[in-house]
Amino acid sequence: MPPEYKVVYFNLRGRGELLRLLLHAAGVQFVDQRVEFADWPSLKSSTPEGTLPYMVIGGKEYGESMPLARYIARKYSLMGISELDQLNADIILNHIDDIRNAVSRARNDKSLTEDQKKEIEAKAMTELLPKLLRRMETRLTENKHGYLIGNILSIADLAFFDLLETSLKEIHNLLENFPKIREHRKRIETYPRISKYLATRPDTKI
Amino acid sequence: MPPEYKVVYFNLRGRGELLRLLLHAAGVQFVDQRVEFADWPSLKSSTPEGTLPYMVIGGKEYGESMPLARYIARKYSLMGISELDQLNADIILNHIDDIRNAVSRARNDKSLTEDQKKEIEAKAMTELLPKLLRRMETRLTENKHGYLIGNILSIADLAFFDLLETSLKEIHNLLENFPKIREHRKRIETYPRISKYLATRPDTKI
Prior knowledge:
2 copies of one chain form a homodimer.
Chain A lengths: L4 E6 L6 H10 L3 E6 L4 H5 L9 E4 L2 E4 L1 H11 L7 H26 L5 H29 L12 H16 L8 H11 L2 H9 L6
Parallel strand pairs in A: 1-2
Antiparallel strand pairs in A: 1-3, 3-4
Helix pairs in contact in A: 1-3, 1-6, 1-8, 4-5, 4-6, 5-7
Enzyme class (chains A, B): transferase
EC number (chains A, B): 2.5.1.18
Protein name (chains A, B): glutathione transferase
């Protein structure tokens, strides 16, 4: 029987990597289909939302990365255990998504001037990201279990880990004053199913 | 015992109304606290995210409207029953939120020029909204139960109903070609706990 899931995205981490990390963490087999940029124009109109990533689940196609991420997380107990844990995980996801959206607007929104793009990216990197880092450092200091939510790995841990991957390539001392976040990254990197994937995934810039 | 929940928002529908609708639909008592604009500057720094709405749940404060809406929906079986229903509900919420975000940017983003604001709002109203209406009309035609997801009321129904409230005040013939959506609105308006709330809530422009 073929795997029940397929994740279709470019050969980038970007908005597709959280889906891949969740499925690996859950230990679920899936097809990790990576689309070439050259093939995208002809593929676009046949995708469920006109965007990537999309997923094939039980033969049907579904788009929109964050609803898909929450779907996998709910299904494989990666959303947090209690109802309030789930709320807290979802709030963290919103903060992460705000930063991703700002960076993506600053890089891709053709209706903006160059000055506006610079302003939006600067705000994301010098206000939103440091604010998130301070919050997460506090959270990891207060939560003695080494995870952002409760005492097990959740979508919040994976989304936060993934967000910093690109920022760390650009700002090497980003975590200089955040020892708990550095420990947290180690914990994710050595999480058995995740470490196996990280060791073999394609190396991409973003 | 005081109600477990408090919803704190301006005296507007806006981003707070979905929380109120969900709690009314669930038949849960809550304090519907409405903040005067004059009081907002002094209140802002003490809110959990620096924004409204926020909620008080069991004595603790939580911000971010969509995570809060999904929290209430999960807790009171308004998120859809099956895992795929929940995914579909969440995808619809994303579409609705995209339109809200575009309109809100067009009205409030001080870094944009007047021309850019007009362009964003025009795109939301002439592209995104009609596309959503066509999708929801199709969904209501295919789903024989009269709801957007499965056979019971869900967060998707309430969020879609709420989104159209403001648009319908501005575009009276918006639903001329969408008979199923008109029926759907009647179904929500006459849903017992909702109809009682709609009859008594403050009348606000947005």
